[in-house]
Amino acid sequence: MSDALRLLIADDHPMFRAALRHALGEVLPGAGIVEVASQSALEAAVAGGEAFDLAMLDLMMPGAMGFSSLVFARGQRPELPVVIISSNEHPRTIRRAQQFGASGFVPKSAPASVLGEAVTAVLAGKVWFPPLQAERDEGDAQLADRLAQLTPQQLRVLMRLADGLLNKQIAYELSLAENTVKIHVTAILRKLGCHSRTQAAVLVKGLSLEEESGGLHDQGNALR
To answer: What span, in angstroms and rounded, lies between the C-alpha atoms of 64 and 207?
Structure first.
């Protein structure tokens, strides 16, 4: 079965992508793997129509804002299971990944056997998360529900809006007419219940990650 599988890896570290590709090759020999290294490349890959069976996302790619890559992937392809691969192992980060729609979460410090267990479970239609110590957050649940109302294109516009881009800058970056961006912004504000662009930007900041001291970017032992 694995020779028919198509996997998407989204991570900006080439060495970690290589390690992840090797580990996945042990679990799913023959599976096809596509790699991307930024939020914009992820958007293009997910929106491109290729029938991926599983996406594996880092939360800290260029252009991403916290859980924005996860929210976009789930909004564009709700049938595509997503496993977060992150060096941020904070219990609330894991819980929030679950609330924003991930099917699994594997710390980058985990051995390859754990990755294999998680991937096998998710491909079988299950979920896989480390033991959780953080409680469900109703604010995150409400934010996820509000963002779920947006179309994939509106999510793209919202993320650029949150970065402080003007309509003409968003139009240029997304190859849209400026009037189309204005229409999207109006719809976004209405759906999110916001009265201004600033209010919408503050709302998106809720996707940001908590900082965790000690070893967040240490991937030296990952997937060994």
So the answer is: 10
Give 2's pLDDT tier (boundaries 50, 70, 90): very low
Dihedral sign, Cα of residue 126, residue 153, residue 100, residue 40: positive
Q: How many CA atoms lie within 13 Å of 202's alpha carbon, on the beta-carbon side?
A: 7
Q: Which of 66, 58, 26, 18 is nearest to 42 (CA)?
A: 58
Neighbours of 218 (CB within 10 A): 11
Cα separation, 25 vs 48, in Å, equals: 24
Nearest alpha carbon to residue 192 among 218, 158, 163, 217: 158
Instruction: Please tell me the distance from the alpha carbon of residue 81 to that of residue 98, in angstroms, as a whole number.
Output: 12
For residues 37 and 15, is the Cβ–Cβ distance under 8 A? no
For residue 148, the one-letter residue type is: A
Q: How far is Cα 41 from Cα 61, in angstroms, rounded to an integer? A: 10
Q: Which CATH code fits 2-123?
A: 3.40.50.2300
Chain segment 7-58, per-residue pLDDT in tens: 999 999 999 999 999 999 999 999 999 999 999 999 999 988 788 999 999 9
Amino acid at 101: G
d(Cα 115, Cα 83) in Å, to the nearest integer? 10
Give the percent of the chain with pLDDT over 90.
64
Q: What is the CATH number of domain 139-207?
A: 1.10.10.10
Per domain, the residue ranges of the chain are 2-123, 139-207
